[in-house]
Amino acid sequence: MLYSKIEGEGKPFIIMHGFLGMSDNWKTLAGQYVEAGFQVHILDLRNHGRSFHSDEWSYEAMVQDVFEYCQANQLSKIDILGHSMGGKVAMLFATTHSEIVDKLIVADIGPKFYKQHHQDILAGLNAVDFSVKPSRNDVEEIVAQYVSDFGTRQFLLKNLYWKEPGQLAFRFNLEVFNNNLDAIGKALPDDLVFEKPTLFIRGGNSGYVQDADLDQIRTHFPDLKVETIPNAGHWLHAENPKMFFELTTAFLKE
After folding, report:
1. What is the number of H-type helices and E-type strands within the chain?
2. 6 Cβ partners below 8 Å, 6+ apart?
3. Residues 6+ apart with CB under 8 A from 167
4. Per the count of CB atoms within 10 A, which of 31, 37, 99, 101 is most buried?
5. What is the per-residue pLDDT across 4-23, written as a single tens digit (0 to 9) for each?
6. What's residue 216's pLDDT?
7. Where is the AB hydrolase-1 domain (predicted)?
8. Active-site annotation holds for 51
């Protein structure tokens, strides 16, 4: 079963993180959604955070995990939000389990195929040799040689934890990501459609969802609303959490 944090009472609202993320990334926003009257479920997807590791890593497998999570928690009518990789999971889940989903929110990702672009990040993570028992500072110095952006490094290093006294490790399953990296870019199958209300939010400075993509998105999600957060990149929910919260809450309460 997937690891989750459940807070609040009201309409169940599932939130799913992106690649190399975890539920903790959404902790602050989750608290705001609780105050807005939702029962919030922030998940760790398989091979991420505190959830189980598995050699099988695909969108189909992740969707099945979420379906089993809903069944185990008796969630029959939900709203769902996913960012980046989590957005791809949310799209596939909504189109294949539409009887469960009332509203879908997708943050800065489209249904199209994305070419692999995480090579520098993975090179930095793979350069860390935990057998020599590095400190947190040591790990950051190694990753910084490959990942120059401070914010991205801090996001990655949230995955560090003490596996045992004196021994750090990453929470995510780096070996499986190395072996199955093309899985993350996979497109939503052409024939899948979700006809209920859908909100796509994109960052104004992010190239993930472009104007040229909108017609294709509408073929999958005909009841579509698109919002753009200006001056925000791919991590739009972290860069402008106030606007992100306002846009998503307004949509959920329509």
Report:
1. 10, 9
2. 39, 40, 41, 73
3. 130, 133
4. 101
5. 999 999 999 999 999 999 99
6. 96
7. 11-241
8. no
Instruction: Give the three-class secondary structure for 13.
Output: strand
Residue 64 CA to residue 61 CA, distance in Å, equals 5
Q: Which of 84, 206, 220, 237 is catalytic?
A: 84
CB 225 within 8 A of CB 251: yes
The position carrying tokens 């590095």 is 134
Structure tokens, 221 = 């999600």
List, as one string, the DSSP characters of 144-190. HTT---HHHHHHHHTTEEEEETTEEEESS-HHHHHHSGGGGGPPPPT
Q: Read off the pLDDT of residues 27-74 as tens digits, 9 standing for 90 and up.
A: 999 999 999 999 999 999 999 999 999 999 999 999 999 999 999 999
Clarify whether 234 is annotated catalytic.
Answer: yes
Q: Which of 17, 48, 234, 237 is flagged as catalytic? A: 234
Whether the CB-CB separation of 194 and 168 falls below 8 Å is answered with no
